[in-house]
Amino acid sequence: MTKRSSFMRSAALAAVLGISAVGSIVAISAPASAAQEVHIVEGYALQGFDPVAYFTVGAPTPGNSEFKTEHGGATYRFASAENRDLFNADPEKYAPQYGGFCAFGAAMGRKFGADPQAWRIVDDKLYLNLNKEIQQRWVADIPGFIRGADHNWEIIESIEDAKLADEKMAPKGLTIGAQ
Fold first, then answer.
1. How far is CA 38 from CA 17, 95, 125, in A?
2. Can you point out the beta strands (E) in the chain?
3. Under DSSP, is residue 67 helix (H, G, I), strand (E, B) or coil?
4. How many CA atoms within 13 Å lie on the side-chain side of 157?
5. What's the rounded Cα separation, in Å, for the pair 161 and 32?
6. Partners of 44 in the β-ladder
7. 3-state secondary structure of 144
8. How far apart are CA 67 and CA 123, in angstroms?
């Protein structure tokens, strides 16, 4: 990546996120740590919210530590034993896309944390975003951002965000934004 293209990518990302300095992205976005493929906060995927409840209740629902399971290197909590059992029967149906990282961020070639309150189910898949403001930008072209994120996720899934942000370490072939 040339310095100019790296600068343009960073400037575009900063503009899209509505911040003045690219360095600020790290502070506001809770980037992924080394080789983190699932967004984990305080030991839990989805910050301890129940992934099944998004589908059954239609709302973010805090999980209970009494009902938990492991999947994909992460611990998920559930509001009930029934939800835990539904998840265990078909984790791919209920687990959030992009390991629970921000769907918009994945489309931008990054792994930003996500707010469990900024969610949407599209084609029976759970997507999260950094916050509700970013989600509004994502909603403007959901199919395009999903195509961009799907493409990028194959490249970035097992790369820490710090490497994605570094022009010298960023992988080749990433797309930026909706595709």
1. 22, 10, 16
2. 40-41, 44-45, 64-71, 74-78, 115-122, 125-129
3. strand
4. 9
5. 5
6. 41
7. helix
8. 27
The tens digit of pLDDT for each residue in 57-102 reads 999 999 999 999 999 999 999 999 999 999 999 999 999 999 999 9
- Tell me the two tokens of residue 75: 């611990």
Q: What gap in Å lies between CA 152 and CA 149, rounded to an integer?
A: 5
Helix axes 132-139, 142-156, angle to 10 degrees: 110
Residue 59, token pair as written in the block: 């709302």
Alpha helices in 31-71 (DSSP H): 51-56
pTM exceeding 0.90: no
Spatial contact of 102 and 114, defined as CB atoms under 8 Å apart: yes
- Residue found under tokens 């503009």: 15
Residues 149, 97: Cα–Cα separation, whole Å = 10
Cβ(121)–Cβ(107) under 8 Å? no
Q: Cα dist. 45→15, 17, 114, 167 in Å?
A: 29, 24, 10, 29
